[in-house]
Design goal:
277 residues, alpha/beta, 8 strands
């Protein structure tokens, strides 16, 4: 999953994995501590029938790490809507994880003209977040430690807690999580992203979610130690005609824990959409 294209919008350069072909498309948005690599076990199951794009958010992966840019969820949602238009995708199936799910919700509410459907995987929402490891990163002492030499042992413990199947966090996989933290610029960008996270952006659209016309699927890894089940339950309760799938043997990094089950749920949802046409 190394093929990346670069697209610049509003002076912000984004990198995207581009795979597959087909009339319809899927646009993948990752969360905090990851980048487009988190979809590496998902995209191969769709690239024969969909054009698949997996973005690196600002401050992550191969996208711009300039500290002068706006890393907020609202700003990134606006930029992504323009990227989708630049790619001539029309309306696309948006699939999101973690804070990427917050961006997806903003897209569905404010930029519905580019969203065909929305899939939220262990997503943030409302005021149930940010979680403790992210809150800790906002304190001066922790920031100072992170800026100097982030302890990879601590990072690995944080990531490993997010897995249900702990053995799946291999040395090779962890290297993807750790890559950005190896450079000063990477750590600075990560911390700027952390400081930009503001739950008010999602609280402000809570009422709008109750009026969504976009089809929504919510996938919950029930062993997620970072994001509570109340998030998925409230999203399902408040979003009209939304579908909720619970995977009991999946943690926060559900796409690594149970990729086949996630793929099955996604295909079921996409086929249900085609049957409605």
């Amino acid at each position: 999953m190394n093929e990346k294209v670069k697209i610049t919008v509003n002076n912000a350069e984004y990198a995207l994995v581009s795979k597959g072909e087909g009339e319809s498309s899927i646009f993948f948005i990752h969360g905090i501590t990851t980048n487009s690599f988190i979809w590496q076990k998902i995209i191969p199951h769709f690239e024969k029938e969909f054009k698949c794009f997996a973005i690196d958010l600002l401050g992550c992966g191969d996208s711009s790490k300039s500290l002068k840019l706006d890393y907020s969820l609202n700003s990134q949602a606006k930029n992504i809507s323009e990227i989708i238009k630049k790619l001539n995708l029309g309306k696309t199936n948006v699939v999101c994880h973690d804070v990427g799910g917050g961006i997806g919700q903003i897209l569905a509410v404010k930029f519905a003209d580019v969203v065909k459907s929305l899939t939220l995987i262990n997503s943030v929402a409302y005021d149930f977040w940010p979680v403790q490891p992210i809150i800790a990163m906002r304190t001066p002492i922790i920031r100072q430690i992170a800026m100097s030499t982030l302890d990879m042992g601590i990072l690995k413990l944080i990531i490993k807690r997010g897995f249900y199947h702990k053995e799946k966090l291999t040395k090779e996989l962890f290297s993807h999580y750790a890559e950005q933290m190896k450079t000063s610029d990477g750590r600075k960008a990560f911390l700027r992203f952390v400081r930009s996270l503001n739950k008010k952006e999602l609280v402000d659209i809570a009422e709008d979610l109750t009026k969504l016309k976009v089809p929504v699927q919510i996938i919950r890894g029930d062993a997620d130690v970072y994001l509570s089940k109340e998030i998925s339950n409230k999203l399902h309760l408040n979003i009209p005609n939304s579908k909720l799938e619970t995977i009991y043997t999946g943690g926060h990094y559900l796409m690594e824990d149970e990729p086949e089950t996630v793929v099955t749920a996604m295909w079921k949802f996409f086929r249900s959409l085609s049957m409605q046409l």
